[in-house]
Structures are given as C-alpha cells and as structure tokens.
Amino acid sequence: MIAECQLATDLVRCAVLMLLYEKPLHGYAIIEGLGERLGRTISPATVYPFLAQMLAVGYLTATHDNVGKRTRTVYSMTAEGRKFSEGIFKRLSQIVSTAIEPNMLRCAHCGCKLYEAGYVKEIDGRRTSFCCVHCAAAHTDEESG
Known about the structure:
Layout: H1 2-22, E1 25-26, H2 27-38, H3 44-56, E2 60-67, E3 70-77, H4 79-100, E4 105-106, E5 113-114, E6 119-123, E7 126-130, H5 133-144
Antiparallel strand pairs: 1-3, 2-3, 4-5, 6-7
Helix pairs in contact: 1-2, 1-4
C-alpha cells in the first residue's frame, strides 16, 4: 500500500508539471485540474509542498494576484522548470510506451503500430488487423495475386 501511495503522489506531481507547463495557475485551479485529469480529489497537502519545492529550486515563480479581499498565488514555470519538466515527460513517455508496447497490434500489411483497434478483416477464418481499409485491400490483393 505504501508503494502505491508513493506512486500516486509521483503521478500527481507529473500531472502538476503538465498543468503548469501549459499555463500559469493558482493553487486551487491546479487542484481542480488534477481532479479532472486524474478522476479523483487530490489533497492540498499533496500539492502545496510540491509547489514549495519547485519554487525553492527555481523551477517555478510565484506572483500574487488580488481577487476581492483575498490574495491568490499564481505559479508560473521558469525556463529551467520547462527544461526539467520536458525531461520528466520524456521519461514518463518511455515508461508508458514500454507498458503499452506488448498490447499493441501492428498492421498486417505495412507494420505500423495500432494504438486502437484499426480496421479488422476476417481472412481465412482469422481476424486480421490493419491500420486502414487501403492496407487491408492491398494485403488481400497481394495474397490473391
């Protein structure tokens, strides 16, 4: 259970980076965005310490925005923060690709990777996957000709 909590926290941190990479946000907007992206409520106790760490190392800047009687802190990513985030995104992409790869299909004709079902045609009693109807037709023509 502890490892799952740490993993979830790391995924939350990656999602925070993604949100701030897109645009500057205040804390509550970050928490709302996390809820939308991750499908669950994220505690401010998870988000704000991470924001403080990112500020401390210079990956974020904070400005204060007065809204009525309240002051909101708006977090923006620095150039160093963007570079750091891009490295994290690249690693995350590699991890996700490794997890997805064994479950991916390839087009029976051109060999491209299929992230979704693609076009399926029954050939000689077997379901065969193609990226498109054109590859299915070309494959059928090659087998019959």
